[in-house]
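In response to a reviewer's request, we include the raw inputs and outputs for one of the modeled complexes. The two entities were modeled together in a single run.
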Amino acid sequence: MSVAAAENRELSAIAAAMAGLGAASRAAARELALAPGDVKNAALHAMAKAVRGAEAGILAANAHDLDAARAAGQTSAFIDRLTLTPDRIEAMAQGLEAIAGLPDPVGETAASWDRPNGLRIERVRVPIGVIGIIYESRPNVTADAGALCMKSGNAAILRGGSDSYETSSVILACLRAGLEENGLPADAIQMVPTTDRAAVGMMLKGLDGTVDVIVPRGGKSLVARVQDEARVPVFAHLEGLCHVYVDAAADLDMARDIAVNAKMRRTGICGAAETLLIDRACAETHLQPIADALIAAGCEIRGDDGARALDTRIAPAREEDWSTEYLDSIISLKLVDGVDGAIGHIADYGSDHTDCIVTDDNGAANRFLTRVDSAIVLHNASTQFADGGEFGMGAEIGIATGKLHARGPVGLEQLTTCKYVVRGAGQTRP
Amino acid sequence: MSVAAAENRELSAIAAAMAGLGAASRAAARELALAPGDVKNAALHAMAKAVRGAEAGILAANAHDLDAARAAGQTSAFIDRLTLTPDRIEAMAQGLEAIAGLPDPVGETAASWDRPNGLRIERVRVPIGVIGIIYESRPNVTADAGALCMKSGNAAILRGGSDSYETSSVILACLRAGLEENGLPADAIQMVPTTDRAAVGMMLKGLDGTVDVIVPRGGKSLVARVQDEARVPVFAHLEGLCHVYVDAAADLDMARDIAVNAKMRRTGICGAAETLLIDRACAETHLQPIADALIAAGCEIRGDDGARALDTRIAPAREEDWSTEYLDSIISLKLVDGVDGAIGHIADYGSDHTDCIVTDDNGAANRFLTRVDSAIVLHNASTQFADGGEFGMGAEIGIATGKLHARGPVGLEQLTTCKYVVRGAGQTRP
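The model returned the following structure tokens for the whole complex.
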């Protein structure tokens, strides 16, 4: 058999496996959509117990994955994300229990009203159906994403990074055991049974109408590939190019604290600030104290000429700095002409994710909050609050910057859709 | 110049025109998003006045379009949809005034709550941005769709059927005059400046990120093309294969009235019933009276063997009848085994649009309402109520059967998205 023929044969085998997986997901989704909340919660607790009970097996599989990843020369950051420890496994189990504790959105009446003809109209939350999750080699996402989908009544098709395949497989078995123990369909949580990338392409095309939405979890290149290739809707953000704008009417202490927290609390998350905009009108008083605090916290600053004229420790920024998501201890700094200058800069360079204004002037604040077209806009609070948990929405599967369906943190409610239930007494339409 | 070179040159010209139109839309959308409700309403009233004032011009342009359409051999139904009369022009003006009377969703706080750390979180409705509408040669859609988009703060890019181009152009001028008179950007409502189909393809690809959503309005082939080719989200339904299920516990009079109304009130709308399902357990008592009423109303019935055994006037149904949207005075009829038989048939053949159960048994009703996965499910009411106006949502731009963002009638609220506005007092994240 030629190489091409062998490849074709392998592709057909993957396509057949994916079609079967899709059909099983669809069937499981229909069943899961009707499951009562307490049964789903019992399954989540059973999953947590199974994860704890499988600690040795998870660690053994993880050791395999780690050996292979090290042999493949993966970076230490990559290895760290892939590594599980007894503590991290316990955290995973606790995460499952926390999801059990969240309110179940399915069946909730989002709105209801009566019509003059006596019809009663209800908008009721129902699961979306089948959700595909594509993520990097972080085995904890297997538990987290699978559980969030299940709790919201959706079937999940998981496709994690190939380097975490063995670890994720053992975790998956725990999740499925928890489902089965409670009479729920195990196929409500499935993993793509191959590390071949062709399977990802098939998922992105929707498996013949089976996949309702794709959620990518990972870095920019993963999200970009998913957004480019997906033929079904995607809940995602490509990057978090978040801005902190310090207005002339800002309290200096507050501005400094927010700037340092927004940038430095955790530099690797999407809500971390990447650009600091300072009102030219207060630059002489506000820039240096804020720069002092950032530099003291270990941050490199890259600024425009105006900023550098006020503080020689600031390195020169290049045009590309305004559109760079550093995810590191670096921040770009630009002087702008008041709130409109800030709004203009964010319109040109922002990523529609999260942006903040620090000011005591409510007029300026409202202008910023209204005109900046981002999923999250904040007044006098750190951009690092951009998180479903911090919003009080419970666990989130990600943050979306698209405008349709889910914008901002994607929690359980955003993983549902609505249907209209209309109750009458024989009404016909005149 | 060769034919191919000439075609290329023309395509480049269209691409350039569409890019310019897209950029103008985007700019107009930003401005329109900030327009107060009373200014938008004043513009709608000015549009209505302009439409009334332009009656002669609209009728003249319409006469041109009609001559060309007749010469091209279009059907009489097509000609009817294209035809405007003074009455229809007045109805169009009244439609614009009715949209002015609807509440403005923009700026509404959909939800708000406080966090333990003092953060105040608001979910505020904002316009989506730029909406592309692709429709057939029905000039009234120009006014209707343009106005709904504008009222919800969105810029509209309209592309109607080429046979209505002249008529729509005059109507468009009225809409733009209404915008300009009120200081709003005229480019908030634009029409694709060519009847070349290549422009439609460009719209469907999103004009380089400009078009946020496409709404097709028209028959199945138009919607199918849009759904196939669009690379941006689409709010639409491909067809309305609506079912009326008459349960054994149905009141016969009610079942008969609902069946006749659901099928025959207007046969050409998406909420018209196409298939009648009758519980085998009541077929002997219920089938014939319902068939009598349908036949008396001028309806042809195509049934399965069980139905035909009970009523010889029923023609034989073929397999394809169960998946045919007749949009005509024809209904298919099948005997099913109780509510689960009905649910199964709808899962196999339905189009996720609107389905109804007639029964006095609330248990059966709830089973149907919960398990039928359609945008709208009704108990004891006609499927012809599937309409934004009948739901009390005001005018609708269409009905969506997709599950994301907008499901069911797409009114003003569904043409908005949300952003999170967070107000703090200097909070940083621990």
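As requested, we also summarize the result in words. Chain B has a mean pLDDT of 96. Chain B touches chain A through 59 residues (CB under 8 Å).
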